[in-house]
């Protein structure tokens, strides 16, 4: 009868040093790759030893996903069966991952390059790089988006490096001031070209200043028009002072009066 104890045939060195990494439920395929790296490192090839090593490393939340296999394991290929079912039952479908990618993922406190790697993990091979770039850059701070728009032709990974430098110079959430060019001296080496962040920031500062001047001119023009309209309105609405020597009609209509009642001293030649 085979010994079901996974450490029964292990050497003392294996019992002391062999340890699997904590289970990674969000990426079970990657976790099994790490596990198999450990198996290879320590020369573990026995199916039952691999199977029980994984079972003993599962938290109860995830063991419950494969409780049927744990209770009644197959006679052969135990490890492969456990691996296949655990991956299938815990892995989000690719459609759900793409939906999550398109609708819910935000930058948060991650560096832009970390966020890009996270989106790539969700996208897999089904989302092309140009769409991934649009999704990724659209969720970066506006100032970063503006700078990246000037280097659209650069590879996505190079753009991510540049975005990291921008975020270090101008932390997310700083919406009141632009980064001082004197604080930016970094350069990013891209494929065949070198871009200096400070140069791009100078250009954007100039554009921003021009837009502010135009907005100020429009605002002053609106204020002047409003002032003239109000002045004309006040002039039209100012009431005429009555002359006690004139009758009601001449006080009301002046030279346009068609009637006159006595006494009235309104000049007849007007």
From TrEMBL:
It comes from the Eukaryota. Residues 20-103 form the DUF7041 domain. InterPro entries: DUF7041. Residues 215-224 have a biased composition (Basic and acidic residues). Residues 225-237 have a biased composition (Basic residues). Residues 215-245 are annotated as: Disordered. PANTHER family: ENDONUCLEASE (PTHR33327), RNA-DIRECTED DNA POLYMERASE (PTHR33327:SF3). This is DUF7041 domain-containing protein. It comes from Pyrocoelia pectoralis.
């Amino acid at each position: 009868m085979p010994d079901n104890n996974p450490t029964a045939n292990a050497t003392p060195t294996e019992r002391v040093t062999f340890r699997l990494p904590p289970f990674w439920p969000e990426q079970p395929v990657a976790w099994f790759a790490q596990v198999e790296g450990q198996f290879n490192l320590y020369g573990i090839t026995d199916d039952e030893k691999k199977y029980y090593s994984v079972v003993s490393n599962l938290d109860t939340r995830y063991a419950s996903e494969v409780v049927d296999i744990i209770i009644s394991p197959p006679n052969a290929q135990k490890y492969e069966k456990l691996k296949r079912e655990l991956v299938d039952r815990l892995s989000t479908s690719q459609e759900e991952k793409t939906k999550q990618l398109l609708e819910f993922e935000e930058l948060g406190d991650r560096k832009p390059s970390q966020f890009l790697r996270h989106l790539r993990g969700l996208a897999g091979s089904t989302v092309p790089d140009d769409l991934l770039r649009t999704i990724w850059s659209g969720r970066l701070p506006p100032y970063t988006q503006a700078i990246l728009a000037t280097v659209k032709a650069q590879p996505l990974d190079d753009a991510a490096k540049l975005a990291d430098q921008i975020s270090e110079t101008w932390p997310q959430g700083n919406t009141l001031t632009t980064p001082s060019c004197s604080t930016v001296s970094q350069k990013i080496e891209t494929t065949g070209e070198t871009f200096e962040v400070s140069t791009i920031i100078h250009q954007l500062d100039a554009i921003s200043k021009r837009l502010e001047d135009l907005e100020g001119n429009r605002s002053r023009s609106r204020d002047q028009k409003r002032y003239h309209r109000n002045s004309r309105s006040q002039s039209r609405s100012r009431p005429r002072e009555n002359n006690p020597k004139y009758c009601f009609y001449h006080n009301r209509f002046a030279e346009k009066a068609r009637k006159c009642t006595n006494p009235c001293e309104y000049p007849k030649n007007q």
